[in-house]
Design goal:
Pfam families: RibD_C. It comes from Rhodococcus tukisamuensis. By secondary structure, the protein is an alpha/beta fold. Helix content is 26%, strand content 23%. The longest helix has 11 residues, at 110-120. It is globular, with a radius of gyration of 18 Å.
Amino acid sequence: MGLICIDLFTTLDGVAQAPGGPGEDTDGGFAFGGWQAPLIDEVVGEQIASGMAGMDALLLGRRTYDIFAGYWPQADGSIARLLNRLPKYVASRQARNLEWANSMVIGPDVSSAVRELRGRHTEIHVIGSLDFVQTLFAQGLFDRLTLWVYPILLGGGKKIFTDGVVPTNLRLVEPVVSSPKGAVLLRYALADGTPGVGDMSAVDQAG
């Protein structure tokens, strides 16, 4: 059974809108497109590359697919070669003409599509695709969540976690690593059950 792995870049206040460039996503008048660029460093670059080592398919939202399709086919390097040869699945409610090689639409029934992809691939990565990720969160359709958290606050913009997120347990699967410019890598696995509750007064009395 294949894994669905979500990879996201976020500010400390949870904004994940348009990390890559000024024109990536200006919805809501967002003025900080490309906020990640001044904070990228070799450590994060190496983490991204190593995290892609086991990836054998991409699952993307429509907007992220269009951005990737406009850039990676003309790019060079190991990541470009990997992304260009991999199967790419696009979540879209409408039929689309997909020109990037090895691309196809998964259709409106996300749950069924993800189940089919799990049977076809070993490690499917969802990169960016923030609107689509909300659907995956709401339906519990993911196995790994990797966050690069950057030391800035933007105040406004699309957030990773919205009101559609269901109560969910996660488990940290590797030590937390920080980069020279302050980005923190957090990699989680989906865990069973829902968050528990308790009474902190009992902890205080025990101390």
